[in-house]
Amino acid sequence: MLLLTYIEDLEKELVRLKEYYLTHQRPENKRDPDFFAFVKENTEPVFETIDQWYGEALNFVKDRDVHVHPQQIESTEENIKLLLLHSYYVDVKRKRYMELHQSVMYVFDLLKNDMDNL
Length: 118
What we know:
Layout: H1 2-23, H2 33-61, H3 70-89, H4 94-116
Helix pairs in contact: 1-2, 1-3, 1-4, 2-3, 3-4
């Protein structure tokens, strides 16, 4: 199933992003054009995967007896995008970052369980 592939790809990316967040310092100048170009280059493919995941996930949860609701998909999409940017800009406290990360992984687990039970 295509949705499972997107979830697995995003899970790998979130692990990489979490590692980046934990091992890097906040950039000295958030408005630095070189840093912005670096972030853009590294995040564009992930944003595309997020958009593809979102479409597939929304179709999966609509009109099905599953444990994830469309609103959770929307919130998770937003949380993934937040994690993506916070990972590079290191601009939130660690606790908040980990809460966002855990929330996204929880919804991914629910989706995978629902796919297994169909």
